[in-house]
Write a structure and sequence with these properties.
Helices cover 22% and strands 39% of the residues. By secondary structure, the chain is of the alpha+beta class. Strands 7-4-9-8 form a four-stranded mixed beta sheet, sandwiched between helices. Strands 1-2-3 form a three-stranded antiparallel beta sheet, with no helix packed on it. The longest helix has 21 residues.
């Protein structure tokens, strides 16, 4: 199979970059690139900081979910805790911080399940999907950003699966974290038992 994808990982050569927009969360640039195949292409790129999405679960299979207003859908949506990785942070440190800031829960034994691309066609953002365990009796103070408020609830895992099936969870990162956990961690743990 490796010979079929022999060019995977080979970078293109960026010939030019022109800034278009600089904002508080992302920048937009126009680039001219020579691809690994030798094509010269022009692309718009959203330069975005990397992020984490956290699947926090209790010993009795309750999942931390939140609802928050999201401009991309112009609605309050259901999601897993998530946030940007600050400069100098690794994904696990960022996940611990974000979970505590948004929910008040303290992360125990966090681990990176996998990393995903938000949308490889137009942004360089990588999202680390983190699995962590929480104790509902261990809480810390929440610290929201000035322009955010998250309504946090513990939801039984079977109800979270129902929300997925019903299309109530729209966040690609959240869907990926949950399905990765169910297919590659939970399933494997059940098969070993």
């Amino acid at each position: 199979m490796a010979d079929i994808f022999e060019k995977v990982g080979r970078p293109g050569k960026v010939l030019s970059t022109t800034p278009v927009y600089h904002g508080p969360i992302f920048d937009l640039v126009k680039q001219t690139i020579e691809t690994p195949d030798g094509l010269e292409v022009k692309r718009d790129l959203i330069q975005h900081g990397n992020a984490v999405t956290i699947l926090a679960i209790t010993a009795d299979d309750q999942v931390v979910l939140g609802s928050e207003y999201r401009v991309g859908r112009n609605a309050e949506t259901i999601s897993l805790p998530a946030g940007l990785i600050n400069p100098g942070e690794d994904p696990l440190t960022a996940a611990k911080r974000e979970l505590q800031e948004e929910t008040g829960y303290v992360a125990h034994d966090p681990q990176v399940m996998t990393e995903i691309s938000s949308s490889e066609g137009f942004t360089n953002e990588t999202v680390s999907l983190i699995l962590t365990h929480i104790d509902t009796n261990e809480r810390a103070e929440r610290h929201f950003d000035a322009d955010e408020y998250v309504n946090t609830q513990l939801v039984p895992l079977d109800k979270v699966i129902d929300l997925l099936r019903q299309g109530q969870i729209h966040s690609a990162q959240g869907i990926c974290a949950l399905t990765w956990y169910l297919n590659f961690i939970r399933k494997w743990e059940c098969e070993r038992a």
